[in-house]
Structure formats: structure tokens, C-alpha cells
Design brief:
Helix content is 7%, strand content 37%. With 60 residues, it is mainly β. It is globular.
Length: 60
């Protein structure tokens, strides 16, 4: 799977995460759910659904 999506339900506070092969920020990103999306193939992360940034690599 290409993406990991992490979110928090604003009504219940329940946190969840799932894998998916398809993610389109314009259609799927919901800031009310405090979403974090990780692109595992490009090693990028977005916290706002618009700006993708590199994921740092640990040197250990």
C-alpha cells in the first residue's frame, strides 16, 4: 500500500490509521479529523493536505 492515513474523529476522539493505495488530498483530506498522510513510496508527509515535506531519516 502506498499511503498511511492517520486521523482523529472530532466527535469521539477515537484515533485510527489505515493503509490505502489511493489518496487525493483535494477529495480525501479532512482537516477536521487532524489527518496526517504519509506517502510511503516517495517518503513524504503532509499535515495540512497541501504541503508535502520530506520525512527525515534516522542516522542510527
Amino acid at each position: 500500500m502506498k499511503y498511511i492515513v492517520i486521523s482523529k474523529d472530532p466527535c469521539t476522539g477515537e484515533q485510527s490509521a489505515f493503509y490505502t493505495n489511493w489518496f487525493d488530498a483535494e477529495n480525501n483530506f479532512n482537516p477536521e479529523y487532524n489527518m496526517i498522510v504519509i506517502d510511503r513510496t516517495r517518503h513524504l508527509v503532509t499535515f495540512d493536505g497541501e504541503t508535502w515535506q520530506d520525512i527525515d531519516e534516522d542516522s542510527l
